[in-house]
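debug: dumping io for the single-chain case to check the tokenizer round-trip. Nothing else runs in this session.
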Amino acid sequence: MKRTEQLDELGISAFAESMAMMIQSGVTTEEALLLLRQDNHEGILASALEDMAKDSEEGKSLFEAMSNTGIFPKYALEMVKAGESTGGLENVMRHLADYYQNQKEVNDKLRSSILYPASMIAMIIVVLIIVLAMVLPAFQNVYTNLSAASAGYIRFAYALCITLLVIMVLIVALAFIGLYLYRNGKKSTVEKWLRKIPLVANILDDMGTFRFTSAFEMYLSSGEMQDNALAESMELTDCPEVEEKLKKCAAHMEEGHGFAYAANKEELYEAIYGRMLVPAERSGNMSEILERLIGLLKADISNSVTRLINTVEPLLSGILMISIGLILISLMLPLIGMMNSIG
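debug: decoded output
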């Protein structure tokens, strides 16, 4: 039975790790699914395991059983299908366990990068509402009774608060619209908007390259030829920009060049990383170097997200401090003028 809710990264990683250990111990796929079902009593994985075990008893492959549940993403399904066809299911399951653990860490980092700016924007909105609703009216009443000349300063403070509040509300509205589109099949549209921010574009490209490299390494370690591995992995990048580069790489490989040459020619990786591929290809250690690249790409994504946070944090803090400072100045100037006239 197909389900609408998908298993999260941690759940997929745990499932794949458990399957890998049991396959290594000589347990059949059917027995492994039954054992996992006994250990899982709640959640979508528990009911899915029961259906998968039944499918396995009927002679269906693990790929078919997993596909029928609807809880596994395309990447996991394609990897399992490749693992069954090449006889390397255990390696594939270990790869999936590592891959989705890495994905969870990256996604957690991305969520934290969104949470802080969101909390800062919410704080700015609350502060502006308090100023508009309580602080400015109080000063307006006092200054109106004392001096009509101060009305201009009060109007400036109101205009500044309202302008900033409208901007912040628009940012929140755009964020919710983007989230709605992202969850309703318009991911490419949202990413097209986000790519206008250079640092975000770099993160999206790195994530696409990370997904490709993980899949490519798995296919190579399963015994696939480079051109076949590239063709199969290309569909799993989930990033049109990276996919375009890979199509050009495939064209170079059709001309008789190796993957290392093609990747360097199309600048698929940073130059320092790309140069690592050439000696690895010549020595037959491509899988080992790709594993290192996966770790380096993961670190790059984490560093890019950290840089994004470090850029947004002072920007929002600066907006909050400058806006409050300008409002205070506009409120204090009439008071200073009146004190000087009295003195």
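debug: round-trip ok. The first helix runs from residue 9 to 24.
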